[in-house]
């Protein structure tokens, strides 16, 4: 039994080392050896190809060609996919969040789709509002998106990364101090006849339960993630909406932008699910105390990764 325990521990530690080496090696290749530049070049080439096809698709739609609308939506979905495949902020924050927190797959999926669709919504409101209310042109809209909203988004994501570092550090210190304080034998009586979280004298709750506090934290995290991604509209979405506005195909443009958001969501969702699966696989073989410490370390590591990448993108944008 003892041998099995030690073997499981060694396997878990080996998996942990592999995880950190893999993540570290990927980060070095992407941002130390120019891998992000190669990835960005490939994604930009594919986006340019899809943009040209989009212009042709819009002309076919204007002429009333059969199947032109569905072809347009397919192209928009492909554009969103290639846009997200390049170095970007959406998958960085969602992947980092999935790596740092124990998040249910359904909630993580909802976050990925919500943030991408909210980003599409920002583009729709910005372009249609700018064109119809403010009489802005393409230059003003793209300048606002690229020179103001994009740096703001990157800054917010960097701040979220710093918050993950702080929170993970606090958890690690708390786990260490708790382990030290409870290293002696003790007896703890917990018998009672009232509900958890309720006052024994009046039966009412005077504060949130641990589950409610965790849910509130998750909600705040989710809103912050969606806001940091959504505040920066996709340039391709702005391009499409401008074209469809001029061609009197606004409804098709809105539908296309939503399809772009769904295409983006496929990549961000894949990255986020891979991160949370990696976290689960790494921690499930460890004993409780070691798993808690490693979970806190993963949160710090994820925060460092998110903050570093976001700041690098921010400095490039300035």
UniProtKB/TrEMBL annotation:
Pfam families: NicO. GO terms for biological process: cobalt ion transport; response to cobalt ion; response to nickel cation. Keywords: Cell membrane, Cobalt, Cobalt transport, Ion transport, Membrane, Nickel, Nickel transport, Transmembrane, Transmembrane helix, Transport. GO terms for cellular component: plasma membrane. Its main location: membrane. It is a multi-pass membrane protein. One of its GO terms (molecular function) is monoatomic cation efflux transmembrane transporter activity. It is found in: Cell membrane. InterPro entries: Ni/Co_transpt_high_affinity, NiCoT_RcnA. The chain crosses the membrane at residues 12-32, 66-87, 108-128, 148-166, 223-243, 249-273, 294-315. Efflux system for nickel and cobalt. Belongs to the NiCoT transporter (TC 2.A.52) family. This is Nickel/cobalt efflux system.
